[in-house]
Amino acid sequence: MVLFLNVLGACFSPCGRNVYISMPYVQTMLNENIAEVLAERQKEISVSEFFERNKHVLGFDSPVKSLITAVKEGVDNALDACEEAEILPDLTVEIRKVERNEYLIAIQDNGPGIVKRNIPKVFGQLLYGSRFHAIRQSRGQQGIGISGVVMYSQLTTGRPARILSKTAKKMAANEVFLSIDTKHNRPEVVKEDVVLWDETEHGTRVEVYIKGRLLKGRQSVYEYLRRTAIVNPHARIIYEEEGKKYIFERATDKLPKKTVEIRPHPYGVELGTLLKMLKHSKNRQINAFLMNEFSRVSARVAEDICSAAEIDPKKKPKEISTDEAKKLVNAMKKVKIMAPPSDCLSPIGAHLIKKGLRNVLDEYSPEYYVPPITREPAVYSGNPFQVEVGMVYGGNLPKDQQVEILRFANRVPLLYQQGACAITHAIERVKWKQYGLEQRSGKGIPAGPAIILVHVASTRVPFTSEAKEAVADIPEIIEEIDKGLKECARHLRLHIKKQEKKKKVRDKFEIVQKIIPEIAKKSAEIVGKPVPPIDKTITKIMGVLWVDYESKYAKGAFDAKITVINYMEKKAKFSLYAEIEKEDIASISPEGTPDGRGIRWELKLEPTESFEISLKLRGERGDYSDMELYTDGVNQVHVVGAEPLPGDWTLEKTKIVEVN
Amino acid sequence: MSAESLNAVKSLEEIAKKIYEDIDKGRIPSMDIPVRTKNNIVFDIKHGVWKYGKSFGQRSAKKLDGAYMLLRTLYMLDFIKDMIRENKSSTLREMYYISEGWKEGKFHAQDESNSLVEDLEIITRYMREDFKLRPEEDGARVIGNITIDEVNRKGIKKRINCRDDVGDSGYTVPYNVEKEKVSFVDLDADFVLAIETGGMFDRLVENGFDEKERAVLLHLKGQPARSTRRLLKRMNEELNLPVVVFTDGDPWSFRIFASVAYGAIKTAHLSEYLATPTAEFIGVTASDILNYELPTDKLNDRDVEALKAELSDPRFQTDFWISEIKAMLEIKKKAEQQALAKYGLNYVTDTYLPEKLQEMSII
Ligand SMILES: Nc1ncnc2c1ncn2[C@@H]1O[C@H](COP(=O)(O)OP(=O)(O)OP(=O)(O)O)[C@@H](O)[C@H]1O
Ligand SMILES: [Mg+2]
Fold this sequence. Notes:
The complex is a heterodimer. By secondary structure, chain A is an alpha+beta fold. Chain A folds into 5 domains: about 40 residues, no CATH class; about 200 residues, 2-Layer Sandwich (Heat Shock Protein 90), CATH 3.30.565; about 70 residues, Helicase, Ruva Protein, domain 3, CATH 1.10.8; about 150 residues, Ribosomal Protein S5, domain 2; about 130 residues, Immunoglobulin-like. Chain A has an 8-stranded mixed sheet. Chain B has 2 domains: about 130 residues, Orthogonal Bundle (Arc Repressor Mutant, subunit A); about 220 residues, 3-Layer(aba) Sandwich (Dna Topoisomerase Vi A Subunit, Chain: A, domain 2), CATH 3.40.1360.10. Chain B is globular and about 70 Å long. Chain B starts with a helix and ends with a helix. At the A-B interface, α15 and α16 of A face α1 and α2 of B. Adenosine-5'-triphosphate (ATP) binds next to α5 and α7 of chain A.
């Protein structure tokens, strides 16, 4: 890493906060002030040589992974750019084999485009980016992603990258072929032109040739894009692989909440950063510096920090020595400071997680989408973060395998290093048995027909390594994931319990409807007597008031049926309630009476008598795939398929509106 | 129709009558059957065998599986009644295929129908032969100087000497070995050696072990069929022949021995009729593996589980078995009979068996 730092440091002077450079090195070097000496010596090592040696650091450690990484860097940028410009992303990713082991990868977006003069730097110079200093949630952070891809392309195939970018409808597009002068980390424009490009009003297209291997499965480009689609339901992604076309339609037209940039929080600041901030500060006094350049530092707090560090609050920032700066860093951690603001974060939100999951997982026809959980923002070492958890259960998901874990950091799927990730560790800690999933020896990844999604959003996601593949085991983050998982798991348990109860009753149905009549007939035949009446036996076996809801969805409408059967030994007189938005009703028969949050029916049923209600309802997929049904006036222990009428039935449900 | 069969029909009808009345009186139909697991077998001192104990389970139409079983039972009763009336018989497998036509009452695997037949045997105290059902399992093979009369399918008694009148594969044991079918005429041997695998049986035959050591050799063919066990028991009781069991050295083979000597858990209702309590186990034991330094395989997880289950199986609660099972768990290894070939093809007949038979004072 020292090497990494110096080489890059030498070619990029206004080095911003860089989360991937491990800080202890920075400190050591600054302390001993040998950076210059080292830099001098190390300049001779070319960037390409460095890159060759360290390609795993950037995710190019295997032919399979290289393709995924290239796509990932392009897609991350495309989504970042669209969101920043508040454009609904329309992405196209193409992969085509051109030679043995050589692929053409194209990533195209409808983002704001890149002005011509910046194109060479964006794609041809490592550490050039717009997100260094930004403390906000974004995919890109270090300004190395896409130029790394160009560099790798050049190293493996020798071909230049082709960039096409257009910034407005009426403009022509700039076409630039460029390679990287690896010796000086400088872009080299091979050819440029102005061309007509009608495909999009504005946007960028990147084409690179890369040596790699295209595979299917858990770790593949397809899977990366599929997962990207889940947590980016506002994006439309078209993927063309060797002539085959996959379309991930957008599930919502709502852009994610735009994130606000925040100043660093004292709890998260490291010595290197602080020294740089002190050096460049325009503030005259250290207390003003603290108040203006950090978040949540009031005059009181600034004073407290200074006194804890035993530094004169009036001292000039530029005069603070390294030793004093160290004291300051320590003092900051001691003083009580409010948590950083969290509007720098943009969680996906429960509603959209569900939509995203449903959009992509429909092929499994899962039986249950657990209501996703978006935890309140929390903080680790001064960095705000937020955890979201979603879960999908049943249907055609494989029953006897480990559950699938979908890990995301800032809306970017994590495909590698599952075993090293805090998300996995949090999942392994939960006692899943009590929530209805198998878990051998009471710990580890549970087994069962489920998918668990965890999203960690932060201004600074702490990764275990520079390859950004796994979230580090930060106690605060694990704690939050744990809480989110358990919240979801509780819903899952309730669902499974309900299903089990239903299954029991369904079994009983089968018994009384199919088997008992047969047993009666056959036994009568053998003993040579008339077939005995079976009603009493039936009600003894069932002993329930059965309420069942079934629905079929097609094009914005539900065709649904409620069935009630009195399988008790006595006759039953009671009220049945169904929770339905009145404006969703197309037709209901028999009609019932509007009541509280839905409709009420008064029923009187003899033993084994049944009652049926047919409904046509308007709604989106999922809205009425299940229905809240309640009964009143009957002993609830006998009721299956309906809950006791809640006390707030008559209260109109407050509509939850997401506000920007 | 034989009196036995008539009575069998009557007791089958009792089952149907109980179910009919349950429904007629508005009850949930059910049927009581002894629990058929190792937790419900008890030692019968009089016969020296393990039989089912007193715990009964209820098969009731309250549960889905129970309801289906009741319906299947009724179909089976009806089928057996018809067969007895028409003086026909069928194999268990044929009945399984016939059940395809029993609508909701059909079976999904032959294990299910076989085990229901066993249930009926237990409840009625009749044997499946009385129900006109026979196994398709082919019986074992016998080679040795024993002469029997077998009534063949034409009703004619055939006299067979199991050494001189048979080919290399020996006399095949028919599925019915009762007196009216098979009777013993003459014998010139000192003991029966029951062998698990065909390979070992053939080895002993080729080496002339039957003549050299005056043995009747019997091939068990894995877990032995009822008729094999019944024949062993008859040879033991009627001819006073000691029975020695020779199997592979693994937990599954131990169970083969247990079913020969003490009765199988599945057929514990017939133990006094099928088990040979004086049968002795010769090997391969865990001690043999060590003493003879036999080539081995590692125990797999299922083997280990099986051994552990045997430690709590009442049939294995003797000092010999407890110490052998524990020893095997300790060395974590198992060995096949044929591993003895390590020392040459004659080793088993010249050294191993004579040594061990002497130890057991059989020869
Ligand atoms: N498709 C695009 N449309 C508009 N701007 C882009 C696009 N791709 C890249 N950029 C600009 O180029 C910069 C450099 O991109 P690059 O991927 O190298 O770094 P990054 O995204 O900032 O960080 P990271 O190294 O973590 O990916 C971005 O910060 C962004 O400003
Ligand atoms: Mg990037």
